[in-house]
Amino acid sequence: MQPLTDQLLHCTLPDLPLPAALHPRWLAEGVLELRPEHARRAVVVSAGIHGNETAPVELLLALVAAIGAGTLCPATDLLLVFGNLPAMRANRRYLHHDMNRLFGGRHRTAPRSHEATRAAELEAVTAAFFEHTTAPAGERWHLDMHTAIRGSLYPQFALVPFHAHAYSPAFFDLLAAAELDAVVQHTQVGGTFSHFVSEQFQAQSVTLELGKARPFGQNDLPQFAPTGRAIRALITGAPLPERQKPPVHHFTVAESIIKTSEQFTLNLPNEAENFTCLPPGYEIAAQPDRRWVVSDTARHILFPNAGVATGLRAGMLLAPGAPRLSLSE
Ligand SMILES: O=C(O)CCC(=O)N[C@@H](CCC(=O)O)C(=O)O
Ligand SMILES: [Zn+2]
């Protein structure tokens, strides 16, 4: 294991020297705030909200190391969040409850658990971070980095939370510069960290899916380099790197498949990848009180997972294209 990963997991990362000019403060376990003078932007970068999604954690640690070494000089207020440390130590998505379903106050009504306590703590530190920034309203950003359980036909993609405020063209430029292959627009509220930050602080917040989830030490780190470069540009104010790939593909969530029965079944092979296009009329999932059939217009499956706890999302059906009303306007 890399020394910095070891330090994070053993809670000795605060021993790492950081430039005093950035006024570094550890606001909670695994939550580092940096506030350079005259910041014109406030950026939250989070990883490890799911403990087994380790590549984003390594990417975030590389940013902390570069800041410590003085090779990366943020010009923005920064909140760096390592989400679920006990789950990271156990290489599990979560210990008791999926933390990324508990934001927006849902932790209050959920059974008591490490994840519920941590979601409440992350909400509080994020609120304090945005409350004290001098960055203007349109310059609040949040990138919540994840990796997916299955492989994906579009290997790297973004999920934009449903939002009522404007996301700027600069936000979509960032996603393009990060070499993402696809952008998925949510159409309903959710309990994710990115939805919470978007709704509560009118931030341009997004979930990034950067590849397939693998344990520490097994990640192909060069795959994450374009995202790392785009984040560095965002936090230093440098120009964004030029995109080398074809244009980003857009999708919109048409239906969320919510498992509400233990007898829920999913009609898909384990090796089926995210974004697989299914034939219209295909019965993708069923439980005693209902069945989900693929429509003509929403044929792409995302995050199919029969193993989620009852009450949670077991997949989404996507329609190609951005929503008809552009949310960036
Ligand atoms: O691969 C999977 O099945 C899940 C990967 C993952 O953790 N995705 C996030 C997406 C959050 C969002 O919809 O914005 C999640 O499920 O929490
Ligand atoms: Zn995740």
UniProtKB/TrEMBL annotation:
The keyword Hydrolase applies. It catalyses: N-succinyl-L-glutamate + H2O = L-glutamate + succinate. Residues 247-320 form the AstE/AspA barrel-sandwich hybrid domain. One of its GO terms (molecular function) is hydrolase activity, acting on ester bonds. Binds 1 zinc ion per subunit. Keywords: Arginine metabolism, Hydrolase, Metal-binding, Zinc. GO terms for biological process: L-arginine catabolic process to L-glutamate; L-arginine catabolic process to succinate. Pfam families: AstE_AspA_cat, AstE_AspA_hybrid. Residues 41-234 form the Succinylglutamate desuccinylase/Aspartoacylase catalytic domain. Transforms N(2)-succinylglutamate into succinate and glutamate. HAMAP family: Arg_catab_AstE (MF_00767). NCBIfam families: arg_catab_astE (TIGR03242), PRK05324.1 (NF003706). Belongs to the AspA/AstE family. Succinylglutamate desuccinylase subfamily. This is Succinylglutamate desuccinylase. The lineage of its organism: Bacteria, Pseudomonadati, Pseudomonadota, Gammaproteobacteria, Enterobacterales. The gene is astE.
